[in-house]
Amino acid sequence: MSWGTRRRNSIIFIFFTVVFIVLSIYLFKVFYKPPDCFDGKRNGGEAGIDCGGSCILLCQNQTLDPIVRWSRHFRVSDGLYNVVAYVENPNPNGGVASVSYEFNLYDEENTAIRARRGVVELPPKAIVPIIGNSMDTGKLEATRVSFQFTEPFIFTRQAPVEPAIFVEDERISNLDSEPRIRAEITNSVVVPIKDVLVAAIVYDKNDNAIAVSSTRFPVIPAVGSVEAFYTWPTPFKEKVARFELIPVYEEPER
Fold first, then answer.
1. CATH of domain 63-157
2. How far apart are CA 15 and CA 25, in angstroms?
3. pTM of the model
4. Choosing a second label site near 223 at 20 to 30 A (CA), which of 58, 120, 151, 204?
């Protein structure tokens, strides 16, 4: 093979090598998708498929299911009941943005007579009272209530924050006639907070809930307060040992 032939072959080889490299880079950029949290694969340091690691979605084995501490029903008047479930999310860094739930009231024959459905948020490391007010059973008497979540929990990574809403100066009175709770609900941050529900739960000496009520505030002004009042038309059958007021709201950006 002559020198000229070898030189021509070398030029051709270099040319095709450069074309191959350029084409490979182009095809890589066109078709390569870096690992992310939505590709249906366990990659990029994930602990599971599209969960854990750098993903906001937490894997099932990284969380504990919320705990339903108790559920109760309370007769308001003939055929009218309030219900409550006392739910705890034990996860310090994982919350559920939205999950469906269902209450069911039953009569003495264990027949379901009224249902109430809804959705609720479960922030990290929080107690959440889930309340259903004024469940109408007509002329039927409710003897028990059941509560259950009706869809899987989807936990996302959430950092716990200092609460923005505080309950202050709470007091109970008129226990022998028409029990009444009064409290000051204070917003400690510099932005208004909308749609604040404050639940009131009254307990006997055995720490059983004997009454429940709630009130919802459309807005609590920035660094401001509102008064909350709860009343019951007749005295409680059991002696009151304590009560608690629990605000439920979406934490604002600060």
1. 2.60.40.3230
2. 16
3. 0.78
4. 120
Burial class (CB in 10 A: 0-12, 13-18, 19+), 254: exposed
Looking at the chain, the domain(s) classified CATH 2.60.40.10 span 165-248
User: Is the confidence at residue 26, as pLDDT, over 70?
Assistant: no
Distance between CA atoms of residues 46 and 55, nearest Å: 7
- The helix/strand/coil state of 223 is coil
Q: CATH 2.60.40.3230 in the chain: give the residue spans.
A: 63-157
Return the number of other C-beta atoms located less than 10 Å from residue 217's C-beta. Answer: 19
Rounded to whole angstroms, the Cα distance separating 200 from 166 reads 14
* Strand segments (E) across the chain: 67-77, 80-89, 94-106, 112-122, 126-136, 144-149, 155-157, 165-173, 180-187, 193-203, 209-220, 225-231, 242-248
Any bridge partners for residue 197, and if so which?
216, 248
Q: What is the pLDDT of residue 25?
A: 62
CATH class, 165-248 region: mainly beta
Write the CA distances from 102 to 133, 145, 157, 244, integer angstroms: 13, 10, 25, 24
The span from the CA of 40 to the CA of 42, in Å, is 7
